[in-house]
Design goal:
Elements (H helix, E strand, L loop, with lengths): L1 H12 L5 H40 L5 E5 L5 E2 L2 H8 L4 E16 L2 E10 L7 H4 L2 E4 L4 E2 L2 E6 L1 H7 L9 E6 L14 E8 L1 E3 L8 E6 H8 L5 E2 L1 E6 L8 H11 L3 E5 H4 L1 H26 L1 H12 L1 H9 L4 H37 L19 H18 L1 H9 L1
Parallel strand pairs: 4-11, 7-9
Antiparallel strand pairs: 1-13, 1-14, 2-12, 3-4, 3-8, 3-13, 5-10, 6-7, 7-11, 8-9
Helix pairs in contact: 1-12, 2-9, 2-10, 2-12, 2-13, 9-13, 10-12, 10-14, 12-13, 12-14
């Protein structure tokens, strides 16, 4: 490979007899460089947006959730919940009773998901760190409070300082429906809004947090009956041990399924991966089209170096050796453009990451385009562009060998 590579490098940097060959080679390398740079930048920005979206969704998600495989609820006795806390790496376990309810506030109505929680649940960061207004509490004496999501508060037009209570309705379990007086078939409860939570809707309805006892009374649920058991990890002690923790939880609840954050948002993760793959394919297709210029450059170079080819053959070189020379020449054009473009893309991405020089117009969750450079993106960019250049470089060589 030494002799073909040496001659290919000489052809790459030497002045050709026809200046148009130099121009086409430069255009080919420049086009590949710009395409590679764009690919790195766009994928890095896409990674930044992905992380921003994940942080929003995962900000109020538990590290693990335990849900029944069959049915809507499962039983978790206090002793069993205490045993969960004995697992190294787990900081807390929060049972949740969830139901879909009808909500009325003044003259406005809506469907919402009510979540019955215990008092300690309010200390979790996804509640305490996402309060838009008000104070997180579920009861004060005989007065019952609830914490609606921002979406539900917007649809009902409520604020925490208003004196009007939220009226919650839920069908009585096992009761007969009264046609003459339908309200007799419903359990009702009144809650005053104590705080509004910033939360992107994970369902089409709003979210409403309330005290566990009040929700049990409203829905007629059993004392140790829950729809979800949320598990929160101690990040320091659970580092790199989440798989083992999930296995232990599954052993404790064999009739339930244990989901981590990614499994809880499976549709979101699949959608983001599909979108990123689509973006990569589109940009890679553009680079592949640009790489076709290498075909023209090599074809003209072979014609220009016809005398050199005869000389090589006269000196005992095989057609395969001559093939390698021109093939390497075409590949070097593609590879040089790829390396220059990738390097420029990484540098520009780092500048944007450190300075946020390009801002996002409008009111978004971040002020500047978020950027995250991933090694995998660099590898697939360099590999993809190099393989494309390697393949395209064979096309004019094949015609030469036939002749």
């Amino acid at each position: 490979m030494g002799t073909p590579l040496h001659i290919a490098l000489r052809y790459l940097f030497a002045k050709k007899s026809h200046n148009v060959i130099n121009i086409i080679s430069i255009i080919s390398a420049a086009g590949i460089a710009i395409g590679s740079m764009a690919l790195i930048l766009i994928l890095s920005v896409y990674n930044g947006f992905d992380n921003s979206i994940k942080q929003i969704y995962e900000g109020y998600k538990a590290d693990f959730v335990i849900t029944p495989t069959k049915g809507k609820t499962f039983e978790a006795l206090p002793d069993k919940i205490s045993h969960i806390l004995d697992i190294e790496g787990i900081s807390s376990a929060a049972p949740v009773q969830e139901e879909t309810v009808f909500v009325r506030y003044g003259n406005r109505e809506s469907i919402a998901t009510i979540r019955g929680i215990e008092e300690g649940y309010l200390n979790h960061s996804h509640i305490a760190g996402n309060i838009v207004e008000g104070e997180a509490k579920t009861a004060m004496g005989e007065v019952k409070y609830a914490l609606p999501s921002q979406q539900l508060a917007r649809s009902l037009g409520l604020r925490v300082r208003f004196l009007t209570p939220l009226e919650i309705y839920f069908p009585k379990k096992g009761g007969n429906i009264s046609i003459t007086n339908p309200m007799e078939s419903l359990n009702t409860a009144s809650f005053y809004p104590s705080a509004v939570l910033r939360m992107d809707a994970e369902t089409t309805e709003g979210i409403l947090y309330a005290g566990m006892d009040a929700v049990r009374e409203l829905t007629g649920s059993g004392e140790n009956e829950y729809t979800t058991l949320e598990i929160y990890l101690d990040e320091e002690n659970a580092k790199g041990n989440s798989g083992a923790i999930a296995g232990q939880l599954q052993e404790m609840f064999p009739q339930c399924q244990v989901k981590d954050k990614q499994q809880q948002n499976a549709t979101l993760y699949r959608m983001m991966k599909a979108e990123k793959f689509a973006v990569y394919l589109i940009l890679f297709f553009v680079i592949a089209i640009i790489s076709v210029n290498i075909f023209s450059s090599l074809s003209m170079l072979i014609t220009d170096k016809r005398e050199d080819i005869h000389t090589f053959l006269s000196l005992g070189a095989t057609k395969e050796l001559v093939n390698k020379i021109f093939h390497l020449h075409g590949f070097l054009i593609s590879f040089a453009g790829c390396i220059l473009g990738t390097t420029a893309g990484i540098i520009l991405a780092i500048i944007q990451q450190q300075t946020g020089i390009i801002s996002i117009p409008g009111n978004y969750i971040v002020s500047a385009y978020p950027v995250e450079i991933q090694i995998a993106d660099i590898i697939i960019t360099v590999a993809g562009v190099s393989i494309t250049g390697f393949i395209i470089s064979w096309l004019p060589i094949g015609n030469f060998l036939k002749k």
